[in-house]
Amino acid sequence: MEQHNGTEVTEFILLGFAGQHKSWLVLFIVFLVIYVVTLVGNTGMILLIKTDSSLHTPMYFFLQNLAFVDLCYTSAITPKMLQNFVGTEQSISFIGCMVQLLIYGAFATSDCYILAAMAVDRYVAICNPLHYPIVMSQKVCIQLLIAGSYVMGSINASVHTGFTFSLVGINVLLLVVFVGFNLLSTVSVIILSYVNIIAAILKMSSTAGRKKSFSTCASHLTAVTIFYGTVSYMYLESHSNNSQENMKAASVLYGIVIPTLNPLIYSLRNKEVKEALKILMLLASDTCL
């Protein structure tokens, strides 16, 4: 029987942040609070949209799924990171690392496509309001969500995970191709949508109409700017010679902080969500009394 010399990889050592051992308790508390806020905020957004009939529209259908995706991809990495702060063994098993990368990659990619679908939704609502109920029907929304988001996310994560753990040089090329395609395709859809949206808004004669149209897009534009700004920085930074600590900081912002911000962005800047929250709080107070 032919024998081969080699060592089977069973786990990876997690290096963490520079100086982590000196401030592990502070880091643990900070990221635990962020994670709890993420869980409460996104779960609350999902339940609010589900229970309030006034929010049963395509825009909030996508927002509900955005909250679900944010919950999933941050939960793929944050619990292990919290364990790493307080645990004695700062490592992750080979299988655990593979599963983590698969889940994180799938839902993070889905996030891109949901944001693009939300841009299309705003484009149809503002540029073709009379055809909005037909164009953005429930069937179309589900197709955009499943085919354009979850399927693309699963394909991207599966291919990338498979080649990453096969330890071949092609995985770097695939990373560039797949990440580049996902970013360029979704960003192109968002830019084209908003170019048409801005053109349509500028043609409006009513100042109130312009203000209302801009306000319906403000939350989405804020979320898109933060998300794609961070992703672009990570993608460009990975090809530079700068410090790895910068990459770690960007990864934390992208994977842990952004899912916390999205519910705040949409609840603080969205009039319909704020009204739904007020009604829910009044009903809760009446129930308590």
TrEMBL record:
**Keyword flag Protease:** no
Q: Where in the cell is it found?
A: Cell membrane
Give the GO cellular component terms, alphabetically. plasma membrane
Q: Does the keyword NADP apply?
A: no
What is the documented function of this protein? Answer: Putative odorant or sperm cell receptor.
Name of the protein described by the UniProt record: Olfactory receptor
| Membrane topology note | Multi-pass membrane protein
Q: Which organism is it from?
A: Catagonus wagneri
* TM region positions: 24-48, 60-78, 98-120, 140-160, 172-202, 214-236, 248-268
Q: What is its main location?
A: membrane
Q: Which family does it belong to?
A: Belongs to the G-protein coupled receptor 1 family.
